[in-house]
Amino acid sequence: MTRTTRRGVLKVGLAVGAGLAGGRVIAQDADPAITNLQPWMQQLGEGVDARPYGHPSEYEAHVVRRNVEWLTADPVSSVNFTPLHELDGIITPNGLCFERHHSGIAEVDPAEHRVMINGLVETPLVFTMADLMRFPRVNRVHFLECAANSGMEWAGAQLNGCQFTHGMIHNVQYTGVPLRLLLEEAGVRTDGKWLLAEGADAAAMTRSIPMEKALDDCLVAFKMNGEALRPEQGYPVRLVVPGWEGNMWVKWLRRLEVGDQPWEHREETSKYTDLLDNGKARKFTWEMDAKSVITNPSPQAPITHGKGPLVITGIAWSGRGTIPRVDVTTDGGMTWNAARMSGPSFNKSMHRFYYEMDWDGSPLLLQSRAMDSTGYVQPTKDMLRKVRGENSIYHNNGIQTWSVNENGEAENVEIS
């Protein structure tokens, strides 16, 4: 029996050159990409000052956030999506982090911006940005996921691409002041059990947050991935609420009011609640459960190289801890194999996984299943529907399926 190894496949590839896909075989000495001098090899490039703020190669111009026009009535109160299928590792570049706005981007002058703490505190305070910079700061890597991420998929396969099914998420390093330090400065009274965070945008976004969470791991952040927040991400300062739904991460943060009960505002009553089959809705379901998705292959990232070595990759995350294990199936769940976890494993952060195989050209039904550090295992969509029905929008962490045909093309499907 002859066994073809990855090394053997690569040797053959070097001998005959590229172009195995589509049945073409090009001899190495006939490939102009290797035999001819290219223009960039024969002329000087731009100098160091030509691009004062660096940007990606022109050949990566397609790697952008994208909107779904029919999803909302107006782009001012809408969302665009992170191109997950174009990324690797766990850090989302600042220019690709998805956006969700309720009244458009607020362009805030940091010199005129203030953060106030009032309500049930000993000393109401107002901080300038310069004041905030004088507090001890920390750096933490966390994911931010909109509660409506994958929401269109409750009733079945809808959007064809992981950018659109799962792209309301990003994962960056935040730099900021622990919220606990600011609250301690103001002196929270013993009857102060809740915190109302308010944004400075025209929507006056507000959310109620339990004091236990506020004093635990929340940040008042002013930088992401080392640079100042982008305006669409809340410049000059936003709230970071690790592991909890993105609507609570109030952007353009201007006020923190301490109270003795939740405020029951619009974003926690008529919105961001989980509608059940019986017509009632669950509220205060803040934590984002363990979830994963295969980003490659996927509908926007088909297999183009033909048969042979194939790298399957994706991301997993949990609002309750880390992801020690992800399993991958290529046959729709009949058999599962442990994926290879690679890269740092931070609390309430994305995790990158890989599964390598030799593809024989047969159709695939690809799924990933995450397990978090609490032992929770990502459920199927049917398991979620048995509990919550099909009328929900938020908190869909069901297993996603991509059907890959013999040509390597992938499609969003659902299997029982």
From TrEMBL:
GO: which molecular function terms?
Answer: heme binding; molybdenum ion binding; molybdopterin cofactor binding; sulfite oxidase activity
| Alphabetized UniProt keyword annotations | Metal-binding, Molybdenum, Oxidoreductase
* Record's keyword annotation contains Cell membrane: no
Q: Where is the Moybdenum cofactor oxidoreductase dimerisation domain?
A: 283-400
Keyword presence, Cell inner membrane: no
Provide the cofactor list for this protein: Mo-molybdopterin
Q: Which terms under GO biological process does the entry name?
A: sulfur compound metabolic process
InterPro entries reported for this sequence = Ig_E-set, MoCF_OxRdtse_dimer, Mopterin_OxRdtase_euk, OxRdtase_Mopterin-bd_dom, OxRdtase_Mopterin-bd_sf, Sulfite_DH_SoxC, TAT_signal
Occurrences of domain Oxidoreductase molybdopterin-binding (ranges): 102-264
NCBIfam families on file: sulfite_DH_soxC
What is the protein's given name?
Answer: Sulfane dehydrogenase subunit SoxC
